[in-house]
Amino acid sequence: MGGATAQPHSETRLLGVATAGQGIWKMTVEIVTSRAIVGIAWLVVGGRDGSKSSKIATLIPDNRTLEELYIKTHHRRISMALDIVLVAGILLSVLVHLLLRRRLQSIRRLPLPPGPAGIPILGSLPQIGPMPHASLASLAVRYGPIMYLKMGTGGVVVASSASSASSFLKGLDLQFANRPFAISRKDVTYDCQNFVFANYGPRWKLFRKLCNLHFLGSKALADWAPIRRDEIGRVLRSMLESSRNSRPVAVAVSEALVCANANIIGQVMLSRRVFESQGEESNQFKDAITELLTWSGKFNIGDFVPAIAWMDLQGVQRHMRQLHFKIDALITALLVEHEATAHERKGRPDVVDLVMANRVDADGVSLSDVNIKAFISVSSPYSPSSSLTLNTMMDMFIAGTDTSSVIIEWALAEMLRKPTILQRAQDEMDGVIGKTRRLEESDIPNLPFLGAISKEVLRLHPSTPLSLPHYTSEACEVDGYYIPKDTRLLVNIWAIGRDPNVWEDPLEFKPERFLSGRNANIEPLGHDFELIPFGAGRRICVGMHAGLLMVQYVLGTLVHSFNWKLVDDIQVLDMEEKFGLVLPKKVSLKAIVNPRLVGSAYILQSSRRVRLPPGPAGVPILGSLPQIGPMAHASLANLAARYGPIMYLKMGTARVVVASSAGAARSFLKALDLQFANRPFVISGKHVTYDGQNFVFANYGPRWKLLRKLANLHFLGSKALADWVPVRRDEVARMLRGILESSRDSRPVVVPEAVVCANANIIGQVVISRRVFETQGEESNRFKDAITELLTGVGLFNIGDFVPAIAWMDLQGVQRHLRRTHEKIDSMITAFVAEHEATKHEREGKPDVLDLVMANRVDAEGVSLSDVNIKGFIADMFVAGTDTSSIIVEWALAEMLRNPTILQRAQDEMDEIIGKNRRIEESDIPNLPYLRAICKEALRLHPSTPLSLPHYTFEACEVDGYHIPPNTRLIVNVWAIGRDPDVWEDPLEFKPERFLSGRNAKIEPLGNDFELIPFGAGRRICVGMHAGLLMVQYMLGSLVHSFNWKLADEDHKLDMEERFGLPRTHVTAARGQNPRPRGGCTKAASPGCDRSRTGRTKAMTVRGQERCIGIRRMQVGRTQARLHASNGSTARTGNGSVHHPCQAVAPPGLSLRVRLGGSTTPVRRWHRPAAEPRSEAGRWHHPCQAVAPPGLSLRVRLGGSTTPVRRWHRLGSVSE
């Protein structure tokens, strides 16, 4: 078996002549047929009578009169001459055909498959009765499983056995993957541009891919399960109401299920139900589809004899066009409405939205504007250039509504004929499910007899008795037979399912045959050709799995939910078939139903009192917001201790569910990962998130996927991290040199500031090819302050986000504060991007991340990134990549300073592996298990993000037996999970050893072990997880290995108080850490400013002249300080600058920051007197002298706020 066999050269020429002769013969037959009909009409009407010729005109295309056809009456002689030539041509073509026929057969060397001879012109068409599948099965008994019929001017081969079907659909699958053109279906198939009747090719593959991906694939079926459950619940409710009146459920299975199927497809594809209830409108829709499928299945003479197709002798084309108009008008209206409501589906795309978004595939195959025209505007109900998406919609509605209802109706009819089968099915379901609830899709694998019933009905009553026609444009050989080119293939599925060589008692309905015996392993999925109700090969039904699932689910639900019996006046159930493209019962099933289950099983979930997770009651309007203290993660953990790991809170008008255990987090972020992959819109974060267009807060969808792909590919993936190793090594070395300089002056080090500066410079070099800050100083500290303030504000529970009606009042000032902070960061990012664009020519051949993102801002599927998307993406990298890792490093050092044995053990490990002659490298980290254990322990006990970024679901769902309503926010309490005593022994103790041995040894913070998820889990896991963990390990290891650390004031206990925000920071920012170098791996640099942090205050100690007189007292928050004027007469001017002598007197530990003009400027010059700051009456006196440009007044920043100094006491006089 195989394709066409090559012929010798001489035979090829003769075959060409023969083929030409056949073409002449075919053309001649068509002309003769047409002229014969016209001649007969001429004789009937009466010669050339002009008054009568108009009657004939109706039989002639384009309304041409007989005079026009015969070149007017006075040219009759010319016409007769032409007729003589025509007859001669006919005789010549017949002679050529007869002479070459025998020779042609010898050339082939193979016979045609056997089949009936047929009659001239029509061939075997008259032998096809009103039930073509039965007629063809009868002919196959006589002529064999592979049968060739001449139908009109074309050839048709029919496969009527499993082996012959396998020969065609497996052995020659690709060759028969096309569809023949049928004139009668031209309107319905949009001139063969739809999915079902399109030829095999790139566009067909694209549509199949989109259908599988978003509608009919296993993942898509799982996503749309709640919709199917809801619609079948509506059917049960309707039938229950009918049963209460003891009246027959009129056409219960067909009409009710067609309505339900249409609504399921409507919600999945268009986000709306098509019919609110079963009624006249839904019945008309069903009738239209049934008629359309019935007429589509007819053997139309015009399809086989194209020369007379214009006459439409059977009226098939007229009926098909009228029915097409009805259905097309309905679907067009649905699509127009869908386009008008696009704004309501933001973040919740349906299938049509996804098809639109993926109109171009990776190979460049696209759906043009003409193809998707129906989505925007449709000029008329029918147009040859209508949308391919509209065609697919038509296919989905037609194929997805009537076919499964036909199978279910047949199954119920067979069970009503054999009540023992019905009873056995109900007994099986009662044993597995019981009578207290409905059957669910998850129950089906546990119901083998239900599965056997479904397969048996598909065998005995396939919805499509004859496969859709296949077509080959090339000659081929099958099982020793020659198949000419341009041959149609029909697979008689109905005959295969009743083959006595395969099936014992083939006409009996016996589901047991699929439970044991030789047929037990046969499945209707296209691999076992004994049962192919959905076809096989490349053109197998794309909705096969969905169709089988719907048959089993709906049939099982109906059988389990009701007792069935025939209407009293029906003695014998009519089992006659009605042929069409599908094979329904000729007389629809009517039955009386009685409920079998408890009453609550029939109640729609939307109207049932659902079981919400436990949680506090809350107060009116605000809900549980007053119960959330300043440390939100701790407040929620305390509530979870009372209400459980899954807790539901009403916060204002918003619904919030909190997961506080590893098991609860797994239930949401693994089992329902996709459903909770979106982010809620927060008013307070509107500016910070660029109106939801940045990466971190964007909803899950194509644009988010593109941003994540670019981040992984060029910035945060393993290959990108390896490419940027030199940048990280250099910046960490700079940080160590700065710390070394501080150690030589015995000055304390503020670790977060140093780490933030290094991180910002690393990100800057990687993303925009420049260091952001030349040195750690005032500019880098302002940047860190802005990021810290921004993250703190975003992490707050803002009332306006939960009660939108009062958001405009901004009661907490969060929105105002965030807007100002965002403007600072945005202006910096904008300046970076502008400078980056201006220096593009300097980076030719050396692109950075921003260059690569700009170059790949449009992906292969047509998804594009706007300038705002890219700007938000860059801002996310700086904001998320700088402060978070510095917080973890700070906490880890603080814990090691509290536990010096841990610090010593870490240093000993590194000395053994690395030594003291070089710095730690990233390649050393895998060899330092204790360092990694310290980092994991810091991430467990002090996660930088104690509460996960909020997730959001648009649809209702069920989690661990609890109902989660739609539009609910999900917060995972990462802080509480890391301190769960059921998972961690001594959870409040800092014990890195727990990750080296014992039950926690194999836990990793990478999103797979839900006991430790500092970076989140699921689809929205932190994209910078690997980079963040690497930076924490590398920086912490570098600091611990390079320096000895101790507290500056050993008499004071290290403050471990937290400050809540989006990242949870250390209140006392590692103040008082005095590092001492441990090896020769750093170099000295010029001294810098002395900085420290106390409480929430960052300050600068400025040393200068020590001569002062006069006192000025200031009150700043809870901090008091005194300012002294210098013992000079006035401020003096030198080198264009004004020298302001002063002295600040402050409580111990509080130093001074000088603010000049409108910005805080570090004082880089001062005069060091011999005297150091002195202590008097419990306060420190800091002599200083500020040097500033002329015209700038002096402001002193104490305790976090800036107070102007307006009065100076100089030599007894006062100067304003």
Describe this structure in words.
Strand 22 and strand 23 form a beta hairpin. The protein is 42% helix and 12% strand. The strands form eleven sheets. Strands 22, 23, 24, 25, 28 and 29 form a six-stranded antiparallel beta sheet that branches. A four-stranded mixed beta sheet has the order 2-3-7-4. The protein has a four-stranded mixed beta sheet with strand order 10-11-15-12. It is of the alpha+beta class. It has a domain at 669-1069: Cytochrome p450 (Orthogonal Bundle), CATH 1.10.630. Mean pLDDT is 75; it is low at 1-19, 37-75, 368-392, 1061-1073, 1080-1138, 1146-1172 and 1191-1216. The chain crosses the membrane at residues 80-100. Its cofactor is heme. It is found in: Membrane.
Task: Offer a concise description of the structure.
By secondary structure, this protein is of the alpha+beta class.
Oligomer: single chain
The amount of helix comes to 40-55%
Please indicate the percent range of residues in DSSP E strands (runs of 2 or more): 5-15%
Task: Report the radius of gyration as a whole number of Å.
Answer: 41 Å
The CATH class designation of the domain at 669-1069 is: Mainly Alpha
Structural class: alpha+beta
What shape does the CA trace take?
elongated
Number of separate helices? 35
The count of strands amounts to 33
Name of the CATH superfamily of the domain at 669-1069: Cytochrome P450
In the CATH hierarchy, the architecture of the domain at 669-1069 is Orthogonal Bundle
Provide mean pLDDT, rounded: 75
CATH level 3 topology of the domain at 669-1069: Cytochrome p450
Pfam families: p450
Protein name: Flavonoid 3',5'-hydroxylase
Transmembrane segments: 80-100
Subcellular location: Membrane
